[in-house]
Amino acid sequence: GxxxxxxxxxxxxxxxxxxxxxxxxxxxxxYIANRSSGKQGFAIAGALAALGARVTLVAGPxxxxxxxxxxxxxxxxxxxxxxxVDAALPADAAVLVAAVADWRSDGAAEQKIKKDGTGxxxxxxxxxxxxxxxxxxxxxxxxxLLIGFAAETENVVPHAQAKLAxxxxxxxxxxxxxxxxxxxxxxxxxxxxxxxVETWEHMPKQAVADRLAARIADALENVS
Length: 224
Ligand code: CTP
Ligand code: CA
Description:
Blueprint: E1 14-19, E2 24-27, E3 30-32, H1 39-50, E4 54-59, E5 70-74, H2 78-88, E6 93-96, E7 103-105, E8 126-128, H3 132-138, E9 145-152, H4 156-167, E10 171-176, E11 186-187, E12 189-193, E13 197-199, E14 203-204, H5 205-223
Helix pairs in contact: 1-5
Bound molecules: cytidine-5'-triphosphate and calcium ion.
Residues 18, 78, 96, 98, 100, 102, 129-133, 148-151, 163 line the site of cytidine-5'-triphosphate.
């Protein structure tokens, strides 16, 4: 990794970031996925490293280069992401940007599922994945600053406020994904805490990352 400049705002701090989708196998050739590109999470990891933080980035399957100075752990499934996050603790702050698949197929088939020729459909049973953010929120190694993302297509702020409370997070970055945000280069977000809702202007994902990293530095300075 890179050596942080002396006096860097996040020098000596460990920040954990999750990014990208997860893939949940159905059989050896098929999986459940979502439209997350990983761009926002990777930009946040890079922005935190640029402020001197030690950054552990737990990344789902994406085709993006690792930002300079970031330690990257690649995972495929929600359960692998959960284990990698737990293994990376303790952390001063965690920013969970990943679009974790909510459900996985209960017991992926070991062989490719074949059509049986009569039109009978496979019996896919879904089970819920662990909630990594909620687990951190109530865990014994809770990061001092715990930040989630919420992708919403409607009622963006109320849904984010409900998630903040339900998951025990300090901030939720609420993301209006009703347009072409997923995979795109720009983002419209609200920074939601128990005390306030801040609406940020529509801006490039890199600018969201820089602004959030600066806010994280402010918050960690003010409580340490
Ligand atoms: N998250 C997580 N583990 C999960 C699901 C979500 O850590 N199994 C995290 C995401 O990384 C994000 C936050 O929780 O930081 C909110 O994710 P979101 O999908 O918006 O919340 P859900 O509780 O899954 O609600 P929804 O039904 O809207 O998908
Ligand atoms: Ca979800």
